[in-house]
Amino acid sequence: LINSATKSILVEQLYIQKNWNGINPFLKGLVNKSKNGVRVKVIMNYNPSYESTDRMNEETAIYLRNNGIEVKFVYSNWSYFTNVHNKGMVIDGRKTLVSSINWNENSVRNNREVGVIVDNGEVAEYFTKIFNYDWNLSKEEKNMGMDYESYTDTIAIIAVFSIAFFMIYLHWRRK
To answer: Which DSSP state fits 159?
Structure first.
């Protein structure tokens, strides 16, 4: 699929392992396409709870950036979702891969994985919009659209504790 790209490749992965007894063949394919004029963008997850995965992704990002590929980490606190868990690609705005395949050697060589390639512009457009949304996330994004309704549970808990504290205080004072 990577080799079929002529204009663009968008990749979104939870994590990508750079070394598989040599360079990961998927990464080699991305670098080759990038060097031949295909625009390649890669999103990987960043979550402080997964330090070893973050280190692996950082090593991969350095390799990709050194080879002219745009890389973005999406921090789990930047949206309402806990992690970027997608394993997919959009090729030339036409072909979409949605799969369970992590880009590590174990997943490819030892696991029963599944993926589907859809050759349809509308499907690719849908996944491109999701990719672009994730690509454009920033720290401020999570707070957008937050309103009173988003805090009703917190406000109710604070109110209950405040009333309870006040009642205990009044009872204590009467003694």
So the answer is: H
Q: What is the pLDDT of residues 86-100, one digit of tens each?
A: 889 999 999 999 999
Q: Which token pair is 119?
A: 């050759």
Percent helix, strand, coil in the chain, to 5, is 50, 20, 30
Q: Domain map of the chain by residue range? A: 2-144, 145-175
Which of 29, 135, 54, 38 has the alpha carbon at shortest distance from 93? Answer: 38
Q: Which of 31-40, 71-80, 145-154 has the highest mean pLDDT?
A: 31-40
Which of 4, 73, 72 lies closest to 32 in space, CA to CA?
A: 4
Question: How far apart (Å, rounded) are the C-alpha atoms in residues 31 and 68?
Answer: 8
Residue 18, phi then psi, degrees to nearest 5? -70, -45
Phi-psi region of 89 (alpha: psi -120 to 50; beta: other; left: phi over 0): beta
CB count within 10 Å of CB 173 equals 7
CATH for 2-144?
3.30.870.10
Q: Is the CB of residue 53 less than 8 Å from the CB of residue 47? A: yes
Nearest-5° Cα angle at 56, 137 to 116? 65
Q: Which ranges in 46-151 belong to alpha helices (H)? A: 51-66, 105-110, 121-135
